[in-house]
Amino acid sequence: MRILVVKPSSLGDVIHSFPAVDLIRRSLPETSRITWVVNENLAAIPTLYPGIDRIVKFPRHRLGSAKALRDFVNELRAEPYDLAIDFQGLLRSGIICRLSKAPRRAGFKHAREGAWLFYTEKYGVADDVRHAVAKNISLARQALASDADERRPPLIIPNAQRTEATALLAKLHGSGPVLAVGFSSRWPSKNWPLTFFAAVLDECARRRPDLRCWLLGAPNEQADGEKICALTKVCRPTNLAGRTAVLTLVALLEQSQALLTNDSGPMHIAAALGLPCVALFGATDPSLTGPYGEEGQHHIINSQCPKSPCFQRVCPIGPDECCKGWNPASVADIIIAKLQA
User: Fold this and answer.
1) Identical topology for domains 2-144 and 159-340
2) Do the beta carbons of residue 58 and residue 8 sit within 8 Å?
């Protein structure tokens, strides 16, 4: 059987699809093939899962180029498919399913932007299935009539990136456990204040003077990483924001012992690796998009703001609202417990 997985974006959403794709792989004969359509800037992510046979890069940021679209369609149709499954549920992903010429095209019954118009099979999700990962698993099970068990999929990180990560971590200040820090996200409303992160890191360092700490982020977030480094008085974090490729970032997280983070793509990478997360939530709902894993593996710090979760990209009240009521020392205690576990 030949399966087309359509999940072009975003980083966290692609990671959310891994358990469902793993279930698909384990539900099919060994001779089956799985192709994944993903945005070209995220093409490295599906390579982490060894069950993918082929990746087709979607030119999301070159849609104005007739040649780029033509090349994409040609690559998409280079192999025939028996079933296309749309885990994205948006207009463009629905169109991709239709362009694939797969005779069976499955997706969510309540897909947005009219994507359901391009499906031959539409599936609902039970009301008590809330998390994005669980919804994807439900769709895969229904499309394949599979009763395969859910599990955390194995991820394979190339040796070159593991070696690079090891060398970077060897340069960190300290000799103790490694704490990764994701201080940023795409939504400004998800970002807890840099001063709060700095205060938490100092409290962690007071409890564990040998703590090793590194900051992760995109190239345009390097300056904020430097601000955290300047704000800390006890902790001595190393700012790696924007200084690593995505697979090296994955390797760095694999070799860390815990992650302090906003709701972000790297948080979902960490959860997929089994890395304990202490996740700060305010604008979004962790029951929908929190770090996925076994009960007790992660710890959610929920904002005490009365408007939380507001689901708005920009805070409707003002900056620094989400962290009010939380003592950095209390958050540090939670992190230290994760590091010691």
Assistant:
1) yes
2) yes
For the chain, what percentages of helix, strand and coil (3-state, to nearest 5) are there? 40, 15, 40
Topology classification of domain 2-144: Rossmann fold (3.40.50)
Report whether the peptide linkage leading into residue 330 is cis, meaning its omega lies within 30 degrees of zero: no
Per-domain residue ranges for the chain?
Answer: 2-144, 159-340
Contacts of residue 88, Cβ cutoff 8 Å, sequence gap at least 6: 6, 7, 8, 9, 13, 115
The CA-atom distances, in angstroms, between 256 and each of 28, 170, 221 are 34, 12, 21
CB-count burial class (<10 Å; 0-12, 13-18, 19+) for 67: exposed
DSSP letters along 13-44, please? HHHHTHHHHHHHHHHS-TT-EEEEEEEGGGTT
DSSP state of 61: G
Helix boundaries (H) for 159-245? 159-170, 194-207, 222-231
Kindly report the backbone phi and psi dihedral angles of residue 280, in degrees, each rounded to the nearest multiple of 5, phi listed first: -95, 120
Sequence-separated (6 or more) residues with CB below 8 Å from residue 1: 28, 29, 32, 33, 82, 83
Q: 171-210 pLDDT, tens per residue?
A: 999 999 999 999 999 999 999 999 999 999 999 999 999 9
What CATH class has 159-340?
alpha beta
Torsion of CA 82, 19, 184, 191, to 10 degrees: 100
CB neighbours of residue 238 within 10 Å: 18
Dump strand ranges (E) for the chain.
Answer: 2-6, 33-39, 54-58, 83-86, 104-108, 121-123, 178-182, 212-216, 238-239, 258-262, 277-281, 299-302
pLDDT digits (tens, 9 = 90+) for 224-283: 999 999 999 999 999 999 999 999 999 999 999 999 999 999 999 999 999 999 999 999
Closest CA to 199 of 323, 322, 321, 283: 323
Burial of 299 (0-12, 13-18, 19+ CB in 10 A): middle
